[in-house]
TrEMBL record:
Gene: KCNJ3_1
Protein name (database record): G protein-activated inward rectifier potassium channel 1
Residue span, Potassium channel inwardly rectifying transmembrane domain: 8-148
Listed Pfam families: IRK, IRK_C
Localization per Swiss-Prot or TrEMBL: Membrane
Gene Ontology CC annotations of this record: monoatomic ion channel complex; plasma membrane
Catalytic reaction annotation: K(+)(in) = K(+)(out)
Length: 321
């Protein structure tokens, strides 16, 4: 097998990296929420912990600063003195007061007195800022956890695609399956052919994308994915594989990107699963083994045969020939 760089990995990851953005990298900060959601989990957790830690230390320092400037730290044990915050003696006690206020725990030992207008203003600022930080970070974590990316892990694609005859026509086929009992609502499948080509004007297109018809006109691209389905692309005069034969397949260099989209039934969120097939993963003259069997009152799917193929008599010539 010839090893070469893929445009899309078998697990759906796109091998594209953006570099030399220059001043355009500021666009990531303009959409900070999406940027945080797109980060990996380890960076999300690090930002989550650092944001709360820094915010807690800064706000506790502000409460300690008010007590220090008013002289409350030196007269905290004087019963006749009215401090800004009762029972705040040092920075740890100021930090505990902030945590009790922010978390609405309220043990009742530390509290703001009415003779501290700056403390009341800081308390209002703390409440507003805390609500904003909580809404932003908790919302980010919730969206991160509820993303339907993991749902794509239970959508299967066959390891290889096959070329054989169906209904007297030469077809390119591959298989898709859903491992969960929950359905993919409005599931739709699309295929793109990634192949380098040169235009009549001499322009070289290194990754030209061409659409492969998998039933757009007939509605066959709309899937009822309750059992494994074989997706079929008819090779005809309109197909980019019109001149493809068994012999020319060995010298071709292309990649077929498969995109399966649908709505997750349990969450209502849109899910997308991707995979790709290179020319080495297209088997000429093969057909997929059946995986459905009728049991007592239900149909059983044998996923151990999901990727299995067997040879069938297939003309080695292209449709054009």
């Amino acid at each position: 097998r010839r090893e070469r760089q893929r445009f899309v990995d078998k697990n759906g990851r796109c091998n594209v990296q953006h570099g030399n953005l220059g001043g355009e990298s500021s666009r990531y900060l303009s959409d900070l929420f999406t940027t945080l959601v797109d980060l990996k989990w380890r960076w999300n957790l690090l930002i989550f912990l650092l944001t709360y830690t820094v915010a807690w230390l800064v706000m506790a320092s502000m409460w300690w600063g008010i007590a220090y400037l008013r002289g409350d730290l030196h007269q905290a044990h004087d019963d006749t003195y009215s401090p800004c915050v009762a029972n705040v003696y040092n920075f740890p006690s100021a930090f505990l007061f902030f945590i009790e206020t922010e978390a609405t725990i309220g043990y009742g030992h530390r509290y703001i007195t009415e003779r501290c207008p700056e403390g009341i203003v800081l308390f209002l600022f703390q409440s507003l800022l805390g609500s904003i930080v909580d809404a932003f970070l908790i919302g980010c974590m919730f969206i991160k956890m509820s993303q339907p990316k993991k749902r794509a892990e239970t959508l299967m694609f066959s390891h290889a695609a096959v070329v054989s005859q169906r209904d007297g026509k030469l077809c390119l086929m591959f298989r898709v399956g859903n491992l969960r009992n929950s359905h993919m609502v409005s599931a739709q499948i699309r295929c793109k052919l990634i192949k380098s080509r040169q235009t009549p004007e001499g322009e070289f297109l290194p990754l030209d994308q061409c659409e492969l018809d998998v039933g757009f006109g007939t509605g066959a691209d709309q899937l009822f994915l309750v059992s494994p389905l074989t997706i079929c692309h008819e090779i005809n005069s309109k197909s980019p594989f019109f001149c493809l034969s068994r012999r020319s397949l060995r010298s071709e260099q292309f990649e077929i990107v498969v995109i399966l989209e649908g709505i997750v039934e349990t969450t209502g969120m849109t899910c997308q699963a991707r995979t790709s097939y290179t020319e080495d993963e297209v088997l000429w003259g093969h057909r997929f083994l059946p995986v459905m069997s009728l049991e007592d009152g239900f149909f059983r799917v044998d996923y151990s045969q999901f990727h299995a193929t067997f040879e069938v008599p297939t003309p080695p010539y292209s449709v054009k020939e």
